[in-house]
Design a protein that fits this description.
Elements: H1 3-12, H2 24-27, E1 34-38, H3 48-55, H4 57-71, E2 75-81, H5 85-95, E3 101-106, E4 109-110, H6 115-123, E5 138-142, H7 143-152, E6 160-167, E7 173-178, H8 183-188, E8 198-202, E9 209-211, E10 224-229, H9 233-238, H10 242-252, H11 258-261, H12 264-267, H13 274-283, H14 288-292, H15 302-307, H16 314-327, E11 350-351, H17 352-358, E12 370-371, E13 379-383, E14 393-394, E15 401-402, E16 407-410, E17 420-421, E18 426-431, E19 435-440
Parallel strand pairs: 1-2, 1-5, 2-3, 6-10, 7-12
Antiparallel strand pairs: 4-11, 6-7, 8-9, 8-10, 13-19, 14-16, 15-18, 16-17, 18-19
Length: about 450
């Protein structure tokens, strides 16, 4: 492994641009047989991958080629849904005769972009329960991460993130935004002048988190801002209290097992049994082995937002049990019996169009073209922890002048984490353990 390649990724602060934000230098520090780019755009409504692959095709492929070379992979796959024919055509035109990269078409199902589902679809290799793709010889990155790796190799740090802004907005669009910009300012770009009666989601509608404070900042992992009415079906589901979840479960769970039948991780052979977890929660049982099945839950939401005929929330119950087990130090038993993927795995995929209708978002399933960001920002608030691992340590003080791209937060040697850089030029106005505020000059 070329240490200069890894050092540049560390210096640039590259993390997985979606999901939990795993530091990329750790992932790419390994050797692998295959590299898979997850361009499936797993969650409904998000358009980032599609826009990047069309507008930054050459930069993206340069980054992918570099990753393939550095990891010793024999081939790179771009896993993208076959419905995006215009994007696939563009990619194949630029790839040409390069046999080291192949576009792999996926069916339009949820959750096609789940990392482990993607590996299975492309390679027909099942990542073991509690494992990672490297266990089956591959590394998975998303599109923007590959683009950021390419920029890092040119000495450019991560100061922006691409975000699809959609839902109850006048003009859905995708923007390249400075990290630390507020959700409120981002929504204004799409014509939102009032947030009364509205609730936001950071991320996709299935796994995204509710935006509690619209003045909070976007981060390296923000891929979408979805604005919805407070009384919409999806928001009502996401704002249920745990007390409501458990009460409804005790009243209405009929143990039909549909939550388990359609669980993507159970279909992979990971022994995730949400119907058993619901049974335990409903009747106060102390079935420890049954509760442990929750540890394999990926929290995709298929059980609660699609599978359950009574609108219950097995995912929320799974999360509760996972949290309690984490506190008790209980982990997945990686030495447990290995189960092969279910024979039904190809027949129980959730059609995205049907899912969008089920969660009441059909009218928002529209294009969100890439637009140029030209707004002047008065300030940004840049979190020092935008990734898995330890937060970066501030290396600036109040009153210092910084330029866009200046290193302002650094990871300690040996720590799992990522560097943080200024996203605008200005003066440091506040430094805390959590964030750094920069006001534009």
């Amino acid at each position: 492994m070329n240490s200069e390649f890894i050092n540049r990724i560390i210096e640039a602060g590259v993390v997985g641009a979606g999901g939990a934000g795993f530091p990329t230098h750790v992932k790419l520090g390994a050797q692998a047989e295959y590299v898979i780019v997850n361009a499936a755009e797993c969650e409904p409504l998000i358009r980032v991958d599609q826009e990047l692959l069309v507008h930054f095709t050459n930069d993206f492929l340069e980054g992918l080629t570099r990753i393939i070379q550095e990891t010793g992979a024999v081939k790179g796959f771009i896993a993208i849904k076959e419905k995006h024919q215009d994007v696939i055509k563009r990619l194949n035109e630029v790839i040409g005769n390069d046999q080291s990269i192949e576009v792999f078409p996926l069916k339009d199902f949820y959750p096609a972009g789940d990392e482990q589902i993607t590996v299975y679809e492309v390679l027909k290799r099942a990542v073991p329960r509690g494992g990672i793709p490297l266990n089956v010889g591959c590394i998975v990155c998303n599109v923007e991460t590959v683009l950021n790796v390419n920029r890092a190799s040119q000495g450019k740090p991560v100061t922006t993130t691409f975000v699809t802004i959609t839902g109850e907005v006048n003009a859905p669009a995708t923007y390249c935004l400075p990290i630390g910009m507020s959700y409120r300012k981002a929504l204004e770009l799409c014509g939102v002048d009032t947030l009364d009666g509205k609730v936001g989601i950071d991320g996709g509608p299935m796994m995204g988190k509710l935006i509690i404070d619209f003045d909070a900042p976007i981060t390296k992992t923000t891929k979408a801002i979805i604005l919805l009415d407070i009384d919409s079906l999806l928001i009502r589901e996401k704002t249920k209290t745990m007390e409501q979840v458990l009460k409804q479960s005790r009243i209405a769970c009929i143990q039909c097992q549909k939550c388990t039948d359609l669980c993507p991780r159970d279909l992979l052979g990971h022994h995730v049994k949400p119907h058993i977890v619901m049974r335990i929660a409903n009747y106060g049982l102390s079935d420890f082995s049954g509760m442990k099945t929750a540890l394999g839950c990926s929290e995709c939401g298929a059980c609660e937002l699609y599978a359950c005929p009574n609108g219950l929330s097995p995912r929320r119950v799974n999360i509760m049990i996972k949290q309690e087990m984490a506190k008790a130090g209980v982990k997945i038993d990686k030495n447990a019996e290995i189960r092969p993927p279910s024979e039904m795995i190809d027949y129980r995929k959730i059609p995205v169009k049907r899912l969008i209708e089920r969660i009441g978002l059909k009218k928002y399933d529209v294009k969100a073209p890439l637009e140029k960001f030209e707004q002047h920002l008065e300030k940004v608030v840049i979190p020092l922890k935008q990734h898995l691992g330890a937060p970066a340590i501030a290396i600036v003080e109040n009153g210092m002048t910084v330029s866009a791209g200046t290193l302002i937060g650094k990871i300690e040697n040996g720590s799992l984490g990522a560097n943080v850089h200024a996203s605008i030029t200005g003066v440091i106005k506040a430094v805390t353990k959590e964030s750094i505020t920069i006001e534009a000059q």
